[in-house]
Amino acid sequence: MTLLPSADVVVVGAGNAALCAALAAADQGASVLVLERAPEAERGGNTRFTAGAIRCAYAGVDDLRALMPDLNAAEIASTDFGTYTEDQFFDDMARVTEYRADPDLTDLLVRRSHPTLLWLRAKGVGFRPIWGRQAFKVGGRFKFWGGLTIEAWGGGPGLVDALFAAAGEQRIEVAYEARALELLADDQGVHGVQVRHGGRTRAVPARAVVLACGGFEANAEWRTRYLGPGWDLAKVRGTRFNTGDGIRMALAIGAMPWGHWSGCHAVGWDRNAPDFGDLAVGDGFQKHSYPFGIMLNANGERFVDEGADFRNYTYAKYGHVILRQPHQFAWQVFDRNVTHLLRDEYRIRQVTKVTADTLEELLAKLEGVNAERALATIRAYNAAVRTDIPFNPNVKDGRRTEGLAIPKSNWAITIDAPPFEAYQVTCGITFTFGGLRITTAGQVIDSDGRPIPGLYAAGELVGGLFYFNYPGGTGLMSGAVFGQLAGAAAGQAARGAA
Ligand SMILES: Cc1cc2nc3c(=O)[nH]c(=O)nc-3n(C[C@H](O)[C@H](O)[C@H](O)COP(=O)(O)OP(=O)(O)OC[C@H]3O[C@@H](n4cnc5c(N)ncnc54)[C@H](O)[C@@H]3O)c2cc1C
């Protein structure tokens, strides 16, 4: 086990936010040490589990082509990319967070989204349109919807590999199985971290520290304490290493807790998925095509408007709704009319799925469900569908139910064409929303409202951006934007102090 070198800037964590911070600090001429709690084989945090979908404002195809020069004329001709303006991005953040998102941080997130992806591209990260998951082909043309158009080449693993390659080129040191435990701080600010590495605890001095080591989603005790009873039962979608260390360390030296501490991002996730993420499956345990079917709980009842909005604007809050159902599960039910629309994650080998040629037979196979009540629910649902309104998966089509206590507002299709399919889901937590308060330069703020000299933060552990819900693809964008800002500021501060 090698000795940990001291550095101008120590970055805690090795996911997207941390590596962006490390690269930006190195751009300033600072020496940088990255501390990764995970072993090398599991490096990359939640970032590595993602599909790499990243939300970015663009005014038109030219902005997209700047990020994806490989886009060819035929692809452009066969696709309606539309626009996703800064105003739309800002409005989406405000709307889904019930107007609580910090406006200054949101403004920065939105305005820096495109320039930050250009910066990442220059570092060697590739991008491409998300043809598979975010656009349906109707009338021979793809149409993108829901503000999410770009993904990193190779998904999360590709993004992590590209960031590590860039870090190697910029001579950034990475220490694995190096868990930061405490900040070294005094009245003048932060001067380094206490690290457990190779079975020994030692002090690593630094001129500035960037905390980018995730939220507390993998900590069952903190989940129960802050999110509430029942959250200990959620499955963790990603890394087992994000247990709130960065938040705890900063609070211990007087940082201000900020944001939605009882809130988190959580989705419908295979009922039989392991307790923590499996890198071989990635995000494949998620089941996000519920807008084209219905969801039934153990009582055989629907419990949510599956078609309230595009999945990008509902999936992150529906995990919570599933957790509240009896025995914390639901079955998603589809018929032949929509199975061609189901996302790729429905076709993984490790799936909890049943099929049948009649509804009665299907419902009898739904473990734990009141089949009689479920049949009555589906019949009532079928009778309530406005079949006169045309179905269109690319727009909020208004094809809805009428007269049900729980409506389905879009994409309502009668469930009557065999074969029928059902998929069992429970709640999978992605990341927590509460965390630290930062300035627009990524500096951590103390509980008296003053920046703590030498301490910066980025990524999941920043509070104040997300409340209740989240627009898909914003986690990576926020990590990149605030990682770059925090790293650049830390690098400048460290160089200034040298
Ligand atoms: C299955 C899944 C799919 C997702 N899909 C998407 C998507 O498509 N698009 C999107 O925008 N977002 C997605 N997200 C959310 C996204 O992963 C996160 O928002 C983002 O990756 C967080 O980046 P981060 O750098 O803050 O944290 P992470 O990437 O989780 O990195 C945290 C790092 O800190 C390390 N660490 C923890 N504690 C310590 C410690 N004490 N000392 C040292 N290191 C420590 C961890 O090992 C890890 O390397 C998804 C998440 C999951 C789980």
Describe this entry's structure for a reader.
This protein has 498 residues and is of the alpha/beta class. Helix content is 29%, strand content 22%. The strands form five sheets. Strands 1, 2, 9, 10, 11, 12, 21 and 22 form an eight-stranded mixed sheet that branches. Strands 13, 15, 16, 17, 18 and 19 form a six-stranded mixed sheet that branches. The mean pLDDT is 96. Bound molecules: flavin-adenine dinucleotide. Flavin-adenine dinucleotide is lined by residues 12-18, 35-38, 44-47, 49-54, 179-180, 212-214, 237-239, 241-242, 245, 277, 283, 430-431, 459-460, 473-476, 479.
* Gross morphology: globular
Binned strand content: 15-25%
| Helix percent band | 25-40%
Mean pLDDT: 96
Biggest sheet record: 8 strands, mixed
Integer-rounded radius of gyration: 23 Å
Low-confidence stretches: none
The structure class reads alpha/beta
Number of helices: 14
Kindly report how far apart the N and C termini lie: 29 Å
Query: Could you give the count of β-strands?
Result: 22
Task: Name every ligand kind in the structure.
Answer: flavin-adenine dinucleotide
